[in-house]
Amino acid sequence: MHIILGYFSYVIVILKFLQAVGALKRTADNIKDPLFRFFEREVNLGARLLQDIRQDLQDVMLICQADKKPTNHHRSMMADLSRGIIPQSWRRYTVPQGITVIQWITDFSLRVKQLQAIVQTTQQGGTKELKNFNVWLGGLFIPEAYITATRQYVAQANSWSLEELYLDVRVLDNAGESMDACSFSVKGLKLQGATCKKNKLQLSTTISTELPVTLLRWISVYTRTDADKVVAGKVTLPVYLNATRSHLLFTLDFDTEGEGSGKDHSFYERGVAIISSDLG
After folding, report:
1. Contact of 200 with 255, CB cutoff 8 Å
2. Rounded Cα gap, residues 273 and 192, in angstroms
3. Contact between residue 179 and residue 230 where contact means Cβ atoms under 8 Å apart
4. Are 108 and 17 in contact (CB under 8 A)?
5. Most exposed residue of 58, 198, 231, 266, measured as fewest CB within 10 angstroms of its CB?
6. What is the pTM of this model?
7. How far apart (Å, rounded) are the C-alpha atoms in residues 43 and 71?
8. How would you label 145-175 residue by residue, b for 16+ Cβ within 10 Å and e otherwise?
9. CB 47 within 8 A of CB 20
10. DSSP per residue over 68-96, as a string?
């Protein structure tokens, strides 16, 4: 019981500083927007989970004070907490196996803060600002769905088919650079086994470096310029959900220079990849 209270105390200290997530305002117009539909699902999932966790912790406190009788759900949750693992009912999105409940709740609190920022952005500038929101990709519950939503957004806005779109990447040296109508800003990506300078990769002995703000841009294969085309000297890197590298999200093509330039196998042998979250 003391162990449970120990975890409870730590978790409640974090959660008490988190306000309710809020909600995105749905209208007949913005429900047609793929980005709005995606963020609405993310916000609703986070809001429900935060509410359920708070209720569970309130129940635990009452049970420990002998003011409430535990149910099978409570017993299972308290057994998990006593072992420092994530209660099964809280596992509603993909995380690495084996992380502790303390690691999980710390990460979850950061996800909630991003959701709060998303809601605040729409309240201040309208849902059109979702397109320009700088997204922590690893902090999304279903990040691959975000990539799909951006693709649908560009296809819908330009009357292009989904099949003709190609995902281009540009790592910004200057965070003040503007985005075009087909670009989306993500942050928190980490490059392992290489460094990136002027949007070109170089093999490196550095284990991991955090990429600056990165622009993901959907280009039509029928309209892209010679500079956009995949040419010799590029390598295709996997983008993984987290440090376990067990969940592939998508791939990105990068220009290379220096040792191993243009040789896929050199980068693959070094295990060069991008991860969107440190978990694992």
Report:
1. yes
2. 5
3. no
4. no
5. 198
6. 0.90
7. 29
8. ebbebbbbbbbeeeebeeeebebbbebeeee
9. yes
10. S---HHHHHHHHHHHTT---GGG--S---
